[in-house]
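Progress note, sequence design subtask.
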């Protein structure tokens, strides 16, 4: 199974990853939050209709990652500074986000100037 070998915050805005097959990618934490797979964020299908139980509005801290906690050996649970922590990302989901939202080196350099490392 392809899984991350390293997953760490590069700075306040960027998450950095390395994978067991050699793939590396950085994404915006806001893109990770947007991809939150929990029922609250994705909406639930009720009687064949997609119903959004959560209204996507900006909340302070919502794109600030508080923690990433491993869940079994299949994924991680993300906790955000607005208190949201019900999203569990499987390695497969995570890989999809890192592939589709991968930042270019130029964008990373720009962000690095705005956010000091740490
Ligand atoms: Zn969610």
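Output:
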């Amino acid at each position: 199974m392809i899984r991350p070998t390293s997953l760490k915050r590069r700075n306040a805005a960027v998450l950095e990853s390395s994978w067991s097959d050699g793939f590396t990618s950085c994404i915006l934490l806001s893109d990770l939050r947007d991809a939150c797979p929990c029922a609250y964020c994705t909406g639930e299908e009720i009687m064949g209709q997609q119903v959004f139980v959560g209204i996507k509005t900006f909340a302070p801290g919502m794109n600030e990652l508080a923690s990433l906690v491993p869940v079994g050996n299949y994924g991680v649970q993300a906790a955000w500074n607005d208190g949201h922590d019900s999203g569990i990302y499987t390695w497969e989901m995570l890989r999809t986000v890192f592939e589709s939202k991968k930042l270019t080196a130029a964008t990373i350099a720009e962000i690095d100037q705005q956010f000091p490392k740490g």
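The first strand starts at residue 4 and ends at 9. Work on this subtask will continue into the next period as scheduled.
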